[in-house]
Amino acid sequence: ALWNRDGFPGVWPLFALGNIAGMLLAPLDLVEPISAAYGPAIALGLLAAAAVKPGILLMRSIMFLAGMFPTLAILGGHAWSEVPIATFAGIILALNAGFSMATAVVALTLKGFSYPFVPIAFRALASWLVAIAVMAFAFLIRPGA
Q1: Of 48, 61, 55, 57, which is closest to residue 15 (Cα–Cα)?
Q2: What is the extent of the structural domain holding 51?
Q3: Spatial contact of 73 and 29, defined as CB atoms under 8 Å apart
Q4: Which of 15, 22, 41, 126 has a Cα at 20 to 30 A from 3?
Q5: Where does the chain show beta strands of DSSP type E?
Q6: Which of 43-47, 72-76, 124-128 has the highest mean pLDDT?
Q7: In a domain, 84, yes or no
């Protein structure tokens, strides 16, 4: 699991590589980035809600996509020359900080509060976030949107 001591460091490099891939692919405008960003978010939320422990290869693949698609969503269609280097750095920093902080909050809460309801609460939160993401995605792809 990502919030375990060995979980996050094992997949974080793939998240960062996904950020870099997203930056490199953004000018090509290959996919509609906003709707594509929902896939990894929903996959990660479902894994958390179900408390499934996937294999490291699957987790690294999801983390690569989870790093790439938000970067594509932010930079999609922009040429490299029109975005300042500081903006690229800020995007990478914000995405990595947000992801690592969310993971750290779960890890520290599970470590500090060993009550049996705490993991259940995080699973419930993950399921709600997945439900919200699925509804938002459905509104995004509906005809006439």
Answers
A1: 61
A2: 7-141
A3: no
A4: 22
A5: none
A6: 124-128
A7: yes
pLDDT digits (tens, 9 = 90+) for 34-60: 777 888 889 888 988 888 888 888 888
Q: Residue 7's pLDDT is what?
A: 63
As a whole number of angstroms, the distance between CA 26 and CA 104 comes to 29
Helices (H) and strands (E) in the chain, counts: 5, 0
Integer-rounded Cα radius of gyration of the chain: 16
Q: Which residues of 70-98 are buried (b: 16+ CB within 10 A; e: fewer)?
A: bbbbbbbeeeeeebeeeebeebbeebeee
Helix intervals (H) in 76-116: 85-112
Question: What is the number of domains present in the chain?
Answer: 1
Residue 129, in any domain of the structure: yes
The one-letter amino acid code at 109 reads: T
Which of 25-39, 60-74, 124-138 comes out lowest in average pLDDT? 25-39
Q: Is the pLDDT of residue 87 over 90?
A: yes
Residue 1 located in a structural domain: no
CB contact at 8 A, 62 and 43: yes
